Amino acid sequence: MKNTLGDLNNHLFAQLERLGDEEINGDKLKEEIDRAKAVTSVAHQIISNGSLVLEAKKVAENSLNMERPVPKMLEG
Questions:
Q1: What pLDDT score was predicted for residue 16?
Q2: Which of 1, 12, 23, 26 has the most other CB atoms within 10 Å of its CB?
Q3: CA 24 → CA 41, 66, 70, distances in Å?
Q4: 8 Cβ partners below 8 Å, 6+ apart?
Q5: Angle at the Cα of 67 from the Cα atoms of 62 and 72, rounded to 5 degrees
Q6: Is the pLDDT of residue 73 over 80?
Q7: Each residue of 31-63: pLDDT tens digit?
């Protein structure tokens, strides 16, 4: 199984549509709200992990670029 950020985006919009369904109320609405909180939590972690991987890749690429100028130190 291979999931993408596009798949995550689709899941988030599907959840938004379920929350916007005006025919859902009472316990069903509470269940959907709880599900939305769980989906949001997992989505946040996936995005954070992706950001970390991207940042690590940028650092690795910059450290391999020997032609890149060294930044000047900031004076305190």
A1: 94
A2: 12
A3: 22, 59, 58
A4: 43, 46, 47
A5: 75
A6: no
A7: 999 999 999 999 999 999 999 999 998 888 877
The average pLDDT across 14-29 equals: 94
d(CA 23, CA 1): 33
Q: How far apart are CA 11 and CA 21, in angstroms?
A: 16
Give me the residue spans of the domains in the chain.
25-65
**What are the structure tokens assigned to 58, written together?**
């940028």
Residues 32, 19 contacting (CB under 8 angstroms):
yes
Amino acid identity for residue 25 in this structure = N
Tokens of 52: 């970390």
Judge contact between 24 and 32, C-beta under 8 A: yes
